[in-house]
Automatic annotation (TrEMBL):
This is Superoxide dismutase. It catalyses: 2 superoxide + 2 H(+) = H2O2 + O2. It comes from Cinclus mexicanus. Mn(2+) binds at residues 52, 100, 185, 189. Residues 115-218 form the Manganese/iron superoxide dismutase C-terminal domain. Belongs to the iron/manganese superoxide dismutase family.
Amino acid sequence: LPFLFFFFSRSSAKFVAPLGCLGSRQKHTLPDLPYDYAALEPHINAEIMQLHHSKHHATYVNNLNVVEEKYKEALAKGDVTAQVSLQPALKFNGGGHINHSIFWTNLSPNGGGEPKGELMEAIKRDFGSFANFKEKLTAVSVGVQGSGWGWLGYNKEQGRLQIAACANQDPLQGTTGLIPLLGIDVWEHAYYLQYKNVRPDYLKAIWNVINWENVSSRFATCKK
């Protein structure tokens, strides 16, 4: 398999590999949210959350299962042309599943504020201050052309935090090598029903529901 993806399991707080051996794999399923659809109001309303989770994310999961079956068949036949032709759909739907599985755990009705401990110290070291980090990640996310994601990632080789943007559903680790810590979805389906075309207002609001405990846990895990 040409793509090795990782997503975050909120139940175990560890990285797990959903795209493993296609010959014996179980089908991917839509993860439950750790809160109700209305729990993030007024910052993200229930209608957005319901559509985003039960429709958009569910579509990525369903399509990923279909494309993996086709890929399995292509592998069995030794059909390299078919394998290559399926890679964009595998990347898009696999990335959509990975990204959203991380995104839901990055949010919490008890979120907001600032991180603590090692993560806060790393942010200060790599960005100067939390305010600078917040400003930079917001600017990168606002600046995504079309659909995509703004990310805080960890560069394991360099031992530092980095900010990056990814287009469409490109997964951060598979695209840049950075380990994803905090992802902000800036596809219009993540905010349009509430914030219309004013993406900066959505990005201002989302900081009120960032689950820093989860992000800190991911940071501690990836450093091991």
